[in-house]
Structure formats: C-alpha cells, structure tokens
Amino acid sequence: MKKKADLNDIALAEADIINLKKKVEDLEVQLNQQLEKKSTSMNDSCSQRQPNHHAKKEDKPKGTGAVVKESGSKVALPITSEPAVVHLCLKWLLLLRKLLERPGDATAVYVSTEKAQKELGWKAKYGIAEMCSDQWKWASNNPWGYQSKP
Q: Is the pLDDT assigned to residue 43 strictly greater than 80?
C-alpha cells in the first residue's frame, strides 16, 4: 500500500515531467517560428537575386531541409545559412525528449485486435480514443511501469 508521502512524491514528479514536456513543446514552437522567419527572408533575398524563376535547377540556391515534428504537424523548411545552429537546436530538443523518457516506456504503441480476433475469437468493443485514454491512465498511475519505485 502506498503512503500519502509516496503519492505526493509521485504527483510532484509527474508535475515536473509535464512542465518539462511543455518547455520542450514551447522550444519546438520557437524553433519553427525562427525557421519560418529565416526561410521567408532567405526566399525573399533569393528571389531578388534570381528574378527568373524558370532558371535551371542547378542555378537555384541549395539548402538543407530541417523537419521539426510535434502534435502531428510537420514543417519542412530550406535552410541556406547557419545550418549548424539549426542542427544544434534540433540536437538539444532530441536530447530533452530523451531525458523525459522513463526506463520501460514504449517508444511506440500500436493497437490492433486482428490477431486476438483470429486466434481467440475476441473482438474489441472500444475504439481507439478509449484505448488511448486507458493506456494514458495506466501510464499516469504507474510512473515506473511494472517496476517498483527506484
């Protein structure tokens, strides 16, 4: 049986994790905004330098693509200057995400009842929203997964 102090510690730890995740999301938004500004200014300057938009592909400035994903959105922007800064920002965001992961957390969760239906004759009665909700509740109520508190 968990003591009240243990439950308070768990609640505080979960609040810290939620705050860190929010900070990572905010950093991703800021990075996307910076990339959009940089892309717009680079596109403007490129179009001024090359007014002929029918120019050969080889004549157009080449850039690297940077992709930042969050909440199902995807922004791909050409970066023609300061790619090292963008690379460093992305590296830090990935590191922050890695630090927020707990040992035993699933990196991906796939839901399919096809095998259970074929082998056991069992059919799911709940949809994906309920399944995700139940999985979230379980993960929230079991912050250390199947292991006991470290």
A: no
* Total residues belonging to the chain: 150
**At 10, which helix (H) or strand (E)?**
helix 4-49
Provide the 3-class DSSP secondary structure of residue 71. coil
Residue 135 banded pLDDT, cuts 50, 70, 90: confident
pTM of the model: 0.28
Residue 36, both tokens = 């959009």
Burial 83-105 (b: 16+ CB within 10 A, else e): eeebeebeeebeeeeeeeeeeee
Could you tell me the two tokens for 81?
């200057």
Give dist(CA 25, CA 34) in Å, integer: 14
Domain boundaries, the chain: 4-101, 104-150
